[in-house]
Every structure is written in structure tokens, then in C-alpha cells.
Amino acid sequence: MRSPIAALRAPRSTPAPAGPRPFVTPEGVDLRLAAAAYADRLSAFVLDALIIVGVLIGFTILAFVAAWGFRNVTIGADGAFIIWLLGAFLLRNGYFIAFEVGPHAATPGKRLVGLRVIARDGGRLTADAVVARNVMRELEIFLPASFLLARGQGVDAELIGLGGVVWSGVFVLFPLFNRDRLRLGDVAAGTMVVKAPKVTLPPELVAERAVDDLVFSEAQVDAYGIKELQVLEQVLRRGDRRTMADVARRIRVKIAWDGPTDIPDRSFLSAYYAALRARLEARALFGHRRQDKFDRP
Q: Mean pLDDT across the stretch 199-226?
């Protein structure tokens, strides 16, 4: 039976192990995230592509409706050509960038499949990283696709088509040969796609020695969001003293805690967990779902 260390040293072509994997944030907390499966990423891309094509078809219909109003078929044909040439380029880039820069860090296709984009270093996903990973998609998919669609005859045309097939094959299959199922764009941008099922607030944890008289201000509980609440739940469930001490210290510094200092770490974390959960649930009733500490409170 292979040891965990031997498994971690497996060749890069070895399929990624199922289930969560270690993912340590800059704060030192292991989130145990699961890399998105290749099939899930492909499904999300197909869904997004269908949405983009649907939008282009909608604009094309509008162009012909406008042409019919002017009694000029040429206008409709020219409009359709511009839509599918220029509009497709702008839409396929702007679509992915706009949604992934947003608070969900996911396109509609990714959200339907249950995926999201994150920074591989555990930090905040930046707009520069999102732009970089999506610009690379032009080289990975759309440029070789244009070779395949290019019209021509003779040996040169066949070579161009063959080059497009090889190019597409290399980049499309690239995620299968690394543990985290990274696209070349992810490698360049320092990002990865992980499984992110719909967020639900976990049931309240009750500490063995709860402290009922600890009171946190709104500013103190607004320091974190749902993501941090889930991390805190994991810390409490594991019950590792060293981890709880480290997390409690970080939270005290983050919220500028000036209350009692002799409270056991587990009790302090349980009290803060209850306060944070209550705050997030109250805000959720009014449509405000703060995903993490980077969202505006």
C-alpha cells in the first residue's frame, strides 16, 4: 500500500486524487479544496459557449429585423457579418472576464456545474489574473479553431488544417496531464478552477465550554464572510489546539479584540462563530450574501 508521501510524489501525469486536497491560504488555514474535474470544466465551457452563441443569434435576428424594416436585405447581411466577426471576438473575451472578475468568480456555465476560479497562492483573485487566463484562451482554442475553419485548397490548406488539429489537441488535452487540471491560461495567470457547490451556511456549532457573555460589535463580525465562516467551522470540528490557537490569535488581531484575554481559544472561536453566523444569516434575509472578507460588508 502506497504511503501518502509516495502519492504526493507521483508523476505529474497521474490523475488527480478524488476529494479535497491541501490548499493553504496566506493566513495559514488549510481550506481543503478539490480541483475541478476535466469533465466538469468541459461541461461548463460548453454551456458558456452555447450562451454566447445564443446571444450572437439573438443579435443576428435583430439585425435582419432592422433590415426588414428598412426594406434592405444587404443591411441585414452586413450586420450579421459584423456581429459574427467582431461581436464574437468581443463577446467571448468580455463574457468570461466580466463574470470571473465578479464576486462569484465564475461564469454562468461554471456556476451551473458548481465551479469557481481562485488564485493558486490562496490570495485574492485579481482582475489582471482573470484577464491573463482568458486572453490565453485565444491561443488555446479560438486561434487554432480559425485555422480549421479557414477555406482553401491544396497542400498549404491541408497543412494549416492539420496544424490547427494538432494545436487544438495539445491545448485541449493539457489539463489531463497535471494534477490540478490546469489550462495553459491557469499556469500563466496563477489561477485554478475548483469545485464550489452552492454555499449554504452550516449548522451552528456548540462548544463544550461556550461563553455566552462575549459580545462582538457589528464592525467586528463584519470582518469576515461565508467562506471564512466555513473555514472556522472546519477548525472547530477538527479541534486541533495549535490550529485553534493560531486562528484565534489572527481573529483577535483582525477585529482588534479588546475584551477578556483569558478566554479559552475554543470558547472564543465558538462565540465568534455564533456571532458571525447570526450576522450573515440576518443580512442574507435582506439579499446581502457576503461571500468572503473581500466583499463589501
A: 67
